Amino acid sequence: MSDVILQVRDLNKSFGGVVATDHLDFDVQFGEIHAVIGPNGAGKTTFVAQLAGMLSPDSGEIIFAGTEIGSMSAPERSHLGLARSFQITSVFPAFSALENVILAIQAHAGHSFRFWKPASTDVDLVKPAREILEQVGLGQRSLSLAGNLAHGEQRQLEIAMALATEPKMLLLDEPTAGMGAEESENMRQFLRRLKGEYSMLLIEHDMDTVFSLADRVTVLVYGRAIATGSPDEIRNNSEVRAAYLGEDEVQTDA
Amino acid sequence: MLSRLKLWVLIISFLILAFLPIVAEAIGEEFYISLVARMMIFAIAAMSLDLILGYGGMISFGHAMFFGLGCYSVGILAFYEITNGWVQLAVCVFGTALIGLFVGYISLRTSGIYFIMVTFALAQMFYFLGISLETYGGDDGLPIDTRSEFFSFFDLSEELNMYYLILGTLTACTILGWKCVNSRFGMVLRGSRANLPRMEAIGFPTLKYRLSAFIISGVMCGLAGFLLGNLTEFLTPEYMHWFRSGEIMVMVIVGGMGTLFGPLYGAFAYLIFEEVMASFTEYWQFYFGPILIVLVLFAKQGLWGLLPGKERLGDE
Amino acid sequence: MTLTLFLEQILNGVQFGVFLFLISAGLTLVLGIMNVVNLAHGSLYMLGAYVSTTLYTLTGNLFIAFVLMVPILLIIGMIVEIIVLRTMYERDHMDQVLATFGLILFFNELVRILWGVEGVGMKIPDSLAGSIDIGVPYPSYRLLIIAMGILVSVALYLMITKTRTGMQIRAGASNRPMIGALGINIRILYTIVFGLGAVFAGFAGLMAGPIISIESGMGEEMLIFAFVVIVIGGIGSIRGALVASVVVGVFEIVGRSILPYILLQLVTPDQAQTAGPALASMLVYILMVVILFFKPQGLFPARTG
């Protein structure tokens, strides 16, 4: 099983009487892009929160890169190599794009109990930050305040920050959320370029993204994985079609 | 970095402070020396609060407790005839650091409204503690007979020496503070204020850093208290009353929250205002209350924000 | 310490807890539902005491004073809400803290201007000045307070759990964005909640009048206790406020009276003399710290986040 980077076994989470995660078994292979889809209320948000360390599961195991991370805090998971981007853009609006990435790099450059040297001109931080910004296509915008960036650029910054933490796996929560057609296509091409270098777990609504990027797709319904397989297999799966009954199969993002 | 205008305003301000005693003595108005000395002490306290309030987003209503503790470390030791300034200083620093660690740890695990209430309550606990310690004067207070003794050649009972010690401390704290908020540590603090979950997701164990900031801020405020005890030669639990915490907060806001230098001017402005208003009416707070509300509603950027020029590209 | 004395102290603690509950209940709702830090809540308690004293002096009848006090405090509460608090809802906590701090200053000076710096006094009505034998002789007035407290708690409990408004309040306390989604008029709800809080605080002030000193700044003494109660009980939780009020009340009163005895068993009389009062004043805070250590959200947090 050494080519599995993330293994979720029998994960359970309930809120009062509501079961959000129901005996969930799941894995992500090393180097693959694995998409998770599901109708609204399927428990995707809860799932992500448990993976990222913001929510504690009631029971079950989460094994990442060979280590059981279920009781680890979010920063600890980040240091193990699990990076996430947020569904609702979560950059630091008052900092420049460069400073946003600097923060991410700084978090993995030892401790930050350094009180004297200015951080935003520290070449050890600035150089790698610039490179990453170039990589995601924001090189020209590095000195702009993150709050002044266009929505699509902010989503790119989200990814940049995730990449800056030198992850093994990217947990991307609706990376194309709120993006127009052209921007979404750019994002897809970018993610395709990252493929192989990083394993990716993609939570998505946008079916274009799912079917053009994913190696495997898992469908989540009421907190359970009802099907896992290649995009074609999933497209033709009758249970999946039934679960989506009444919903558009090709969803354009809101 | 700092805009040229603001840098010059700062330099000139410090120069004025440096030459003030000479001018005051020349025109025979010595009392300004201790007046300004007192304002400088509160400037240090206000700046220390801005560190965690403006930069760290921690709304602590208990800063007066550090202020009082610093004062008490002078007073209580002097009571037992330990007047060595170094010993008193060590007690002050370690004492405030310890209390900062304790209070910070308990309260930083809560958030938002809880944090405000807990710091408020704990600070008040120290106030009540001070009042009930009859040996050290209770709520009447305790006179401090001798000022701290540091070097034999530096007699603090000379008003000028006292003044320059305070000015020196203010200068040092200002420089250190500025370095700190722009350092890696400062970035973590500011990021945590802006978006704590994001910071955790990136990989920062934020509690460690915020707790450290809380302690540093507390120690700095304790230093201010240490100097006040020496200046006024009087010890009273009133220094730890929640009202004082509120005053220091007002100084930060008036000067400009999150600017580090603004609160320095805020302290001066508030204390001058208080002097002037109090000379007109005993009930000056009756007018000040609504003025404060208006300030909060319309003048958030404070005095420092009135100066043109941004500190750095990422300025709010 | 005799058993009688001990029981008496427990009753005093419960009675103190009643005050705390009246003040904390309103405040915890304001904090939980409106997410507004209102430092001026103690001022409402103080105004209740002052206004009631004047009304009582004018009418000579405590009940009439109460009946008149309610609308006055309600109006004051609503004015404060409309003029100051409404502008603060969208603001961050820092602004709210400062603005309500300004209100405290304003009200503290207001009462000194209107009623003088010495404060005022209210006498216990003669009909209630005696004591009743409930196994131990206990002051009738204090019994009345306890009885009123139970009455109010029951009424509040019924209102919160059985009425529509109460349901809206509970929904708001646990999930604020929901109330808007449910189509409930937030503005009116907020004003009601705030008004209720003001009336309860004022009622506490009225009842406290005869047994405490009515002076400028009295509100903040109670406010701190209210904070401790709310922190222990959990923001937004009436049940938490009730439990915590009684616990804090009893702890404070009983603690203060048995502490000297306990200390005398442990240390010399001299040391007990010095440390006693100091420790006694810290008891409640130590309790808060201990509880917070294990439960940073309080005992019964209404919100999960």
Explain this structure.
The complex is a heterotrimer of chains A (254), B (316) and C (305). In chain A, β9 and β10 (224-229) form a beta hairpin. In chain A, α4 crosses α5 (151-164). Helices cover 34% and strands 25% of the residues of chain A. Chain A has helices at residues 44-52, 74-80, 97-107, 123-136, 151-164, 181-194, 207-213, 231-235, 238-243, and strands at 4-15, 18-29, 33-37, 59-64, 67-68, 82-85, 169-173, 199-203, 216-221, 224-229. With 254 residues, chain A is an alpha/beta fold. In chain B, strands 1-2 form a two-stranded antiparallel sheet. Chain B contains twelve helices and two strands; from the N terminus they run αααααβααααβααα. The two termini of chain B are 14 Å apart. Chain B has 316 residues and is mainly alpha-helical. The longest helix of chain C is centred in the first third of the chain and has 32 residues, at 3-34. The interface between A and B is large, with 40 and 32 residues.
Task: Give short descriptive properties of this protein.
heterotrimer, B: 316 residues, mainly alpha, ABC transporter involved in vitamin B12 uptake, BtuC, 2 strands, globular, C: 305 residues, two-stranded antiparallel sheet, 77% helix, 2% strand
